[in-house]
Amino acid sequence: MSNVKVVLKKDPAQLRGATFITGFRTIGEVGYLATRHLALKRNMERIGYVVTKYYRDVAFLDEYGLATPFDIFYDNEKHLIVLLNHILPFQREWNDFAASIIKWIKKISINNLILIGALDKRYKMGNENLKWLKTSKCQLSLDYPQLDKQLLMVGPLALFTLHSEIEDLSAIVLLPYADRERTDPAAAATAIEALNKILGLNVSVDELYEEAKRIEEDLQKQMELLQRELARGGADRVYM
Amino acid sequence: MSNVKVVLKKDPAQLRGATFITGFRTIGEVGYLATRHLALKRNMERIGYVVTKYYRDVAFLDEYGLATPFDIFYDNEKHLIVLLNHILPFQREWNDFAASIIKWIKKISINNLILIGALDKRYKMGNENLKWLKTSKCQLSLDYPQLDKQLLMVGPLALFTLHSEIEDLSAIVLLPYADRERTDPAAAATAIEALNKILGLNVSVDELYEEAKRIEEDLQKQMELLQRELARGGADRVYM
Amino acid sequence: MSNVKVVLKKDPAQLRGATFITGFRTIGEVGYLATRHLALKRNMERIGYVVTKYYRDVAFLDEYGLATPFDIFYDNEKHLIVLLNHILPFQREWNDFAASIIKWIKKISINNLILIGALDKRYKMGNENLKWLKTSKCQLSLDYPQLDKQLLMVGPLALFTLHSEIEDLSAIVLLPYADRERTDPAAAATAIEALNKILGLNVSVDELYEEAKRIEEDLQKQMELLQRELARGGADRVYM
Amino acid sequence: MSNVKVVLKKDPAQLRGATFITGFRTIGEVGYLATRHLALKRNMERIGYVVTKYYRDVAFLDEYGLATPFDIFYDNEKHLIVLLNHILPFQREWNDFAASIIKWIKKISINNLILIGALDKRYKMGNENLKWLKTSKCQLSLDYPQLDKQLLMVGPLALFTLHSEIEDLSAIVLLPYADRERTDPAAAATAIEALNKILGLNVSVDELYEEAKRIEEDLQKQMELLQRELARGGADRVYM
Amino acid sequence: MSNVKVVLKKDPAQLRGATFITGFRTIGEVGYLATRHLALKRNMERIGYVVTKYYRDVAFLDEYGLATPFDIFYDNEKHLIVLLNHILPFQREWNDFAASIIKWIKKISINNLILIGALDKRYKMGNENLKWLKTSKCQLSLDYPQLDKQLLMVGPLALFTLHSEIEDLSAIVLLPYADRERTDPAAAATAIEALNKILGLNVSVDELYEEAKRIEEDLQKQMELLQRELARGGADRVYM
Questions:
Q1: Interface of chain B against chain C, CB under 8 Å?
Q2: Which residue segments constitute the domains of chain B, with CATH numbers given?
Q3: E194 touches E131 (CB < 8 A)
Q4: pLDDT by residue (tens digit) across C50-106?
Q5: In this predicted complex, what is the ipTM?
Q6: Structure pTM?
Q7: What residues contact C181, with CB distance under 8 A and at least 6 apart?
């Protein structure tokens, strides 16, 4: 039995045929910055949540209200669903997380996914800003070079890609080159530009730089503090 | 299947529409001090217990009798339920604890929660003693500043807040500024004053200082002793 | 589903209304010494066993035959049940152990428990040899001082006490002052004397001292050896 | 639900009333040497297997063919079942292993067990080569001294003994004195001699010495190599 | 309940009587190199996947498209199934992996297995390049020496062998001598030559050397990088 649950506050029938977009706080925080920027700029409505067994005890007020670790947004005009992952799930949950969400996606008749990650820019060799790949069922062609053969994709996005392939879904994976060491809004902007082309959007990238700076200064510092606390094992005390 | 069980010794139908209040032994022990003080001063009747899988082996005599780790009290006059958490649950249980209790709360038709935590006073910037936040369904407005955007709330209280939001319950979170290093009765008093305003109570805060001192000297010392014992792994011995 | 099972070789209907007594190998081994002494002196018949998931691989011949970790005895004349815990269960099993046994006790209509533990004698302040406490449903009064408020009771006995309270059973907890460092037959004798008064028995305490000495020299040394072996992780070897 | 499964390739009805014999690779490897020797000398037919959740990844060709960790043999003439444990199960599986097999033994109407272990010869005090003990239901008497009271028996054999007692089965435990440091074929020979007397067999002990030497040189060296590999955690690598 | 699932995209009835071939990334990567080479040279069609609970987050583009950790291929002409294991499963999953797949193999009426592993060439004593063994139900005879008695076979292939024996399947295990320290295409070539003889194939071994070199330089370096990352515990961070 899955330990990952999707709580939807909207009639799933209305989501049929939508495009599902997500990304994680991995290299350069690109997947997170891009999806958050998209949800905010498009003024998307939150329509649900993902809840997991190892749900992190982190809550905060974001621009749109009280944020939960995995908020689901919907863009009515363009029929888009964005899963915004404020928190990177625990690694032991990654497979369950990806498998359960892909299963839900399939169940509510969504057939298209766009997954946003990043590549370490130290390995960039040509002029391109972005590489991409797709699952077997995807018919699209993009004007970017594909990921090199034998080059490994890792992290939760890799699992979303694997489960999309296994479930015969059409998924595109966008991998802009990004800086590993810090949040990289330029790389997120590259992803937004690719999304604009693929989906016929016109999302501006201006505030991305302030959002990234804000996240780097405030949220990220606190996350680091939180991580040090966790490492100290402070939490298995009878009192805190 | 949940590993958290609510044992109720009262007809749940009589609890409909009550206000549920809880807090934990986190920063400055504020949530614990305030809820314990409220239960004692209002002479509340114990009506139940929460039992968990990783139930701690800690029992003691409190003012009201034999205390269990998570005692549930009821105030008949003001229709209040207080969950008094003498022990901080194990972190691995936090999500199950919060999710199960919120689910129970919803099932017995309680719609209002007041959650009492604290903020580290080293980060206090203005004159206010307390910040607060609320879930989307909450219509109340308080005469205190709201929690800053992007400032993280952590611990079991964060999970109570998240699950309240997800379950469309109305919850207020009170966060007085408190001293991280010791029990902070002044911060607990601030919380009590806010509760008095919100609930139309008139609970005095005088004995809070003695209660806090008592807890600091006696109970807390023993908890520390207990924690050192646990760290030493003394308990997996064939004899003790 | 519980991982703790009571195997009874007697018709449970015959146990209705009996008094259930138990103790553990904790401070001074008092609970164990007292219950073992009681079972042997009263010539009790073994009527069952408790089996757990993390059942220890320890068997030996005791005075009454082949001993299992948790043997259940019955005294027909005085209608007493003694759970003799030769082994301290693994800490991760304590709650399941206590909860399951209390549930079984309730199911077979036993309403009275006497739990035997100990208090560290370094904290003794007056002249009394023993302190005690009781659950809410217990009507008895003993001629000893009650445990101080806010003084913590820990270990498996604390969990038996908590679950007795939660299940509305009448339980007395006897806590003689004992030496932490070694087996303390004098403290066990104090517990036996209290039991004699409460149950109208006349169990002599003479051999307690030899039994304790025997246990200290033989059994305890081997238990220590066993513990060192366990700590060395000797057991996950393909051969031993 | 048990994680231990008996796979039988013979009609269980034909095993009614058989004697079940087993031993483990513990002190001096006595239990293993004796049972393997018995199965080989009596030319027993393999009739089944035990499979566990933490089944070890070890296969090899023994004299009788491809050996699995826990092979079950049958001796038609003397109506004997031998469980040959080439591998010591993981300690966390011991209780499940013993409990499940005892339960299976009871279910197919086997009532007699002979369990072969060993005692550390450093503690030998008299002239006897072997001590023994039995469960309550066993009527046999052997011409060897019984195990001393309060002397602990440990390891998986202790759990087989406990579960035999709990399930009211008749079990004899043979404990020859053996050398802890190496394989001890002399001790295994003592066990074979005792078996010969109890079961009316005439198994010669000559090749025991070569079998032991072979095991010591070949198999044991590899087991040690394997253990070092395991300790190095080599196995959780993406490639090996 | 198994945590290992076979996802088949082909009617299983068409696989009856096929020969199942697999190998792992163990000594010299022989099993992996040989099976991958076979699948590519025979232009096999991917017909399914194995998904596990501890599914690794690794995806990449191989010659045939987007590779998942455990891809299942089919050769229509020769009625062969190849399970290509790009990733070595976590050791705690090995038994479940082997047992579940053997169970599936049996269920879809496949009776023949060829398992490809390797032997450490430091222990080679004669002129032979390969040793082999087979399960009891296998009638084949090969023109190579069998594995020495008492020589241990370990790793996931050992579990496939054990479960094949237990389930009465016919399995051949090919063990070419290989270099432990690096990928060994020569050993993989020996395995391919043996397969050619057994199955009447004519697979050339030329490109094996480039494939191995490619894997050594690219894929293996990344796997090592990945392993260092895992060891650093980078993945349980709130952000990455």
A1: 7, 9, 49, 51, 53-55, 57-63, 65-66, 68-69, 214-215, 218-219, 222-223, 226, 235-240
A2: 5-203 (3.40.50.10900)
A3: no
A4: 999 999 999 999 999 999 999 999 999 999 999 999 999 999 999 999 999 999 999
A5: 0.92
A6: 0.93
A7: none
